[in-house]
Penicillin amidase, putative (Cupriavidus taiwanensis), 290 residues
Amino acid sequence: MRGFVRLARWLAVLLGLALAAAAGALVWYRDAAQPPVTGTEVLAGLREPVTVVRDSHGVPHIRAASKTDAWFALGYVHAQDRLWQMQMNKRIVAGRLAEILGPSAVDNDKFLRTLGVRRNAEAILAQASPEARAALQAYADGVNAWIDQRKGPLPPEFLLLRTRPERWEPADTLGWQTMMAWDLGGNWTQETLRMRLAQVLPVARISELLAPYPGEQPVRTMDYGHLYRQLAPLASAMASVGDQAPPGYVEGMGSNNWVVSGAYTQSGKPMLANDPHLGCRRRRCGTSRA
């Protein structure tokens, strides 16, 4: 009996030590994985010194002597703060989620490759102005500078999925812009339905079937039916895309905002609350004061 008690005590001690070591490792990893926000970095690619100051909310404020350096610094701090999110965005655009998420992401990859988001981004880049290409390249160079020069462990998502960050390319930025357009165009299925109806119905009749917001009159437009009838093959193709696309339209979806007069605020300044119906991971959300 005494031997059993002694063994239990030793096991308890060992368990306590293991838990303490695990807690210490977790604290170390949490701190080590955070990007540095103070000090000086020497980065190849910058033409002049750039200052990045983070406010009390951690938001970076960039001061640069040129647009090119500002784009570079923006890519650098974006990678500092959102490297995993950016790598996921890159994979979404290219239809490459299944490489790290497994078979459950195959259908999503097939759809995005069929849609051709990455191909479209490359086509846009090829036709962009030299100034636009230079800005996109500077931003990508900033992202890659952080990937190349970062110290410490990667964010936990990379470790869990056993992957490493890939180089950022200008087409990745344009590709995510396209995905934002897709996200903001949640009513595209309604518009393709309108195109299909225009093949057989006049515009007035379509306005009755696709009624406006309650209490409002249909928006006066040109006879889009004539245009849509000329695009009959496209209407059939878009219907096929709609059958394969994930659901996106939500009835009543849309943005809203409200404003309070300065006569009713403590500061005497007006307050504006903007609700763009976008996730906060995409842009700054909240209330602003003029």
Remarks:
- The beta strands are 51-54, 60-63, 256-260, 271-275, 286-289.
- The mean pLDDT is 83.
- The CA atoms of residues 92 and 136 lie 19 Å apart.
